[in-house]
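check these tokens.
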Amino acid sequence: MATPPPATARRLLPLSLGLFQGALLLFFALFASYDEPSAAATQEKDGTRAVEQLPGLFPLFQDIQVMLAVGLGLLLAFLPRYGLSALAHNFLLLNLSTQWALLLQGVRHGQLRLGLHNVLAAEFAAVTVLISVGAVLGRTSPWQLLAVALCEVPLYLASEWLIVTQLGIRDVGGTITIHVFACYFGLGVSKALFGTERRPAHPKETPTPRSDLLALVGTLTLWVFWPSFVAAPCQPGDAQHRAILNTFLALSAGAVTTVVASSLLESGGKLSPGHLQNGSLAGGVAIGALADVPITPAASLALGSLSSLVCLLGFRFLTPFLARRLALHDQCGIHNLHGLPGILGAVASAVAVLVASEDTKRCQLSHADGSGVVGDLWGCGGGRQALWQVAGLAVALGGSLLSGMLTGAVLRLPCLAPPPEPLCFEDSLNFRIQERAESPGMGDTAEEVALKEQV
């Protein structure tokens, strides 16, 4: 009979987290300070600058907080007996990864000048972790999830520096730097962690109407606030306005297309909750690479529809094929929601460069990365910029797969306390559930009941 993780490992987890938080506290005490707009203004111009910036950025910051803590957490709650763990681990990883990214920013620059732009950049790094763990959701221990966060955040920051700073690609909404990188990092982790073993469907993987409803509420939350996620890095003004409008159009078209495609793919013309939960968001993933580009509204609608269609076809045909031929485990279908629409968006951004008019090529597209730098998307020429966009996609794909597989190999260490197979997708492994402690859960085998008594 499989043995549950030793109690010692569970007790060491809060101790290790406390030590890590203490180390972060020491770093912030020694090296972190507020930047001028956030610090107490000693000059009138500092106060004026703070008043001008905060009202425009803070609402977007709040929207992103709701997306990550509430929307994404609920979206992961589709597993009926793992919802509490999914929400709690999502919240823990969000906070730990954000602070870890802030520390790494300070190490890179020698000090940390803290402002909302820095925190947003750190939260974008945390998003990659939250997406990646979706591939292995329910089959990993908290120790393994924390190991993913500690490994992935510095790798993401290095990848973003190479793709954006060195190659000069434009990706205001993180289509390439966030979604593609996070997706294939997570798939690399899954492949290295589970190997070539073809795992049969776990009896606790099947969603219930209640868990599907929770996940759909998460989808609606993400859908409402997604334009803020894309627009936050933009320079206020025309670029930010375009990003909001293009993102909304792509999401709206994607939602309608999801309903149409799901009814055609499912028997009897009925809708699949899983399709609605994922396909409705695919347009937001794809539009990020060209959200602030002056494309036509029709182009945004077309890209949103196409990305949702690709997402649903991936769930219906590609995921079973990869599981059957490559033994690739993708619990949340991140390849369909983040990978395929991300690749589509990257290709669309390259096409947008090539077909742009001469007037558009000379258009200055404002983009702020936290340092106030304003770039010119087409300054190096349309053909050359298109090549850079494709090169950035290749770097994100290759780098994330390789680094993900290396991280997955680390996760195989016995000291990270992987959960026993009978207790995968089970909240009682990490939480004290009174109602389940009093009576065996539905579908529990005698072995699972015995394991729960040992946990």
Observations:
- The longest strand covers residues 32-34.
- Confidence is low (pLDDT under 50) at residues 39-43, 363-379, 436-440.
